[in-house]
Amino acid sequence: MRYELYYWPEIQGRGEFVRLVLEDADCAYVDVTREPGGEERLEAVLSGERDGVLPFAPPVLCAGKLVVAQTAAITRFLGERHGLAPSDEVGRLGAATIALTIADLVAEAHDTHHPTSVELTYERQAAAAKERASAFRRTRIPKFLGYLERNLERNGDVLVGREVSYADLAAFQIVEGLSYAFPRAMAKATQATPKLLALRDRVAQRPRLLHYLTSPRRLAFNEQGIFRHYPELDG
Amino acid sequence: MRYELYYWPEIQGRGEFVRLVLEDADCAYVDVTREPGGEERLEAVLSGERDGVLPFAPPVLCAGKLVVAQTAAITRFLGERHGLAPSDEVGRLGAATIALTIADLVAEAHDTHHPTSVELTYERQAAAAKERASAFRRTRIPKFLGYLERNLERNGDVLVGREVSYADLAAFQIVEGLSYAFPRAMAKATQATPKLLALRDRVAQRPRLLHYLTSPRRLAFNEQGIFRHYPELDG
Fold it and tell me: How is B190-225 classified by DSSP, letter by letter?
């Protein structure tokens, strides 16, 4: 089955969590908006061209009659279908729990540069952004990373189950994204999370992911995405 | 199987989305923190007393070896297990998509009174709150409610599938919560969403839910919860 991924063409953003699963699982897929006419096709999917559930926002994954949006729902679906999730129910619910917690952290990272309105530019809300980013660096990053670290201390080399799952790929990506956006804060926070850094490194060396991460398909982080580096927000 | 729900004892909050599913599905459950010694048991679960995945925050559902946190993961699990979810995969992914979108709306509703830091009181961030709430009322409420309305226009009397699912119960609760917090904005916004209001009314009349909603188990909304009524944030 060939998947169609619909996401913005110029950023990693939330779509990257899906791309990592598709790449690591060696799924056949089209990153639709990076093809000619793709952005119009994204608009058509968002306006309900397909039968079934309407997506609120990208990323959206389609395959035949199947339409699923929301990063954590897409990665869970792909992970469970393609060997990147535990096979037992307790493990599957554990992976879903962790992936959704990482999704919350992604949303909080986004809101550091858009604390009051998604409609306005960062520059128009820079004062509130500074406040929110300060709290994010001081309390939220350590709390979330500590949470992942403690799961690794309890479970072993991976966050849940015995093999790498989509939750581990999400942990890799959140560490990468936050390290781009908040290099100073992350240099400090990750001193307390050696197991998380080791997981990040192991994930990055998985053959298919290594191939992907060094390919032109892996977009660079930038200041249109969710993880933005504004030095004034990094303390 | 008897479920244990762990959530804060004095607010509806995110726990209420879980309670509604447990009540409508007639599950045997204990709302642990409302029992003697319950808050200590919540602390124990949050600090990892149980084997398996560590929860980041309440709500947490436990049953035997099973531990699952994150509202959307819990309600999906319960819905699929107890007849409050479509039985086919396309429908299940549709329900997950909608429930996660409602979870995003819940987070945005929370951030109207806590736009810069979860550690500080509302009063300490009231200026940014006013900005965020204004954008929330003007653009986000209409966008999210319009999204639910369009799904109903496409699908019929319920959001997904042919029977009421946990996604419909979540839609009921978000309309109730937002109507408490933003009565003026909601009176205006819901003029454009007659099908959503009709769904809200039908859900409220489901016999088990009606029984629950009129019982002392249903807590009142208040200003410690996620949906808070601050008149100055309602325009």
Answer: GGG-HHHHHHHHHHHTSHHHHHHHTSTTSPPP-TTS
pLDDT at B1 over 90: no
CATH number for A22 = 3.40.30.10
Q: What are the backbone angles phi and psi of residue B68, rounded to the nearest 5°?
A: -140, 135
- For residue B55, say if its preceding peptide bond is cis, omega within 30 degrees of 0: no
Which of B96, B116, B154 is the closest to A70 by Cβ? B96
Query: What distance in Å separates residue B127's CA from the closest CA in chain A?
Result: 9
Mean of pLDDT over chain B: 97
Classify residue B157: in a domain, yes or no. Answer: yes
Q: Is residue B111 part of a domain?
A: yes
Total domains present in chain A: 2
What residues of B are in contact with residue A98 (Cβ under 8 Å)? 53
Output the pTM of the full model: 0.98
| CB contact (8 A) between residue A73 and residue B154 | no
The whole-number pLDDT of residue A175 equals 98
Q: Which residues of B touch A70 (CB under 8 A)?
A: 96-97, 100-101
Task: For the beta carbon of residue A120, count every other beta carbon within 10 angstroms.
Answer: 12
End-to-end CA separation in angstroms for chain B: 47
What is the C-alpha end-to-end distance of chain A, expressed in Å?
Answer: 47
Nearest-CA distance from A28 to chain B in Å?
20
Chain B residues within 8 A of A76 when measuring between CB atoms: 96
Range of the domain at A158: 89-206
Cα B222 from Cα B234, distance rounded (Å)? 15
CATH number, domain with residue B120: 1.20.1050.10
Same domain, A14 and A42: yes
Question: How many CB pairs lie under 8 A apart between chains A and B?
Answer: 138
Tens digit of pLDDT for each residue in B106-152?
Answer: 999 999 999 999 889 999 999 999 999 999 999 999 999 999 999 99
Select from A55, A100, A139 the Cβ nearest to the Cβ of B97.
Answer: A55
Structure tokens at A5: 């991924």
Whether residues B56 and A104 touch (CB distance < 8 A) is answered with yes
Residues of B in contact with A196 (CB under 8 A): none
Give ipTM to 2 decimals: 0.97
